[in-house]
Amino acid sequence: MAKAYEERIIALGREFQAQGVQFILISANDTTDYPEDSPTEMKRRALERSYPFPYLFDATQQVALAYGARVTPHIFLLDGNLALRYRGAVDDNQYDPGALKSAYLRDALSVLVSGRLEELKIPETVAKGCTIKWRD
């Protein structure tokens, strides 16, 4: 997960877990050239930071390819029927959470748990973050 968004994603995970939302984080980075992204290192970080959700590893990178993920984090919000409801960025300010103008993921999650999907105003944004480290 991109470190710039880590605290915000953890907070959203904790907040919406109580409302029945399950977050799943998936790392698809190549660990040969980027050993700091290995499952062992990511498990250590998840435990250290008390992630309230599972953190999985996409060893084949097929999940990332299937969803069209480009960066970390690239959000894919699915409803209870696994229909894609939101795709893109966590919010509009990767570097300064105090300067947010739009909290895209929070807004989409709020609409999703309310059951009023017709109120979802922005179903897709451009995800911002570090590029996925693809294997050769």
The CATH architecture can be named as: 3-Layer(aba) Sandwich
Number of domains: 1
Tell me the Rg in angstroms. Answer: 15 Å
End-to-end distance, in Å? 21 Å
The tally of strands reads 6
* Strand line-up of the largest beta sheet: 1-2
CATH fourth-tier homologous superfamily: Glutaredoxin
**Largest pleated sheet:** 2 strands, parallel
H/E element string? HEHEHEEEHE
Structural class: alpha+beta
- What is the strand content? 5-15%
Unreliable segments of 5+ consecutive residues: none
The helix content, as a percent range, equals: 25-40%
Q: Which outline best applies? A: globular
> What is the CATH top level name?
Alpha Beta
Describe this structure in words.
- The protein has 136 residues and is of the alpha+beta class.
- It has one domain (3-131): 3-Layer(aba) Sandwich (Glutaredoxin), CATH 3.40.30.10.
- The chain contains 4 helices and 6 strands.
- The strands form 3 sheets. The chain has a two-stranded parallel sheet with strand order 1-2.
- The longest helix is centred in the N-terminal third of the chain and has 12 residues, at 6-17.
- It is globular.
- The two termini are 21 Å apart.
- The mean pLDDT is 94.
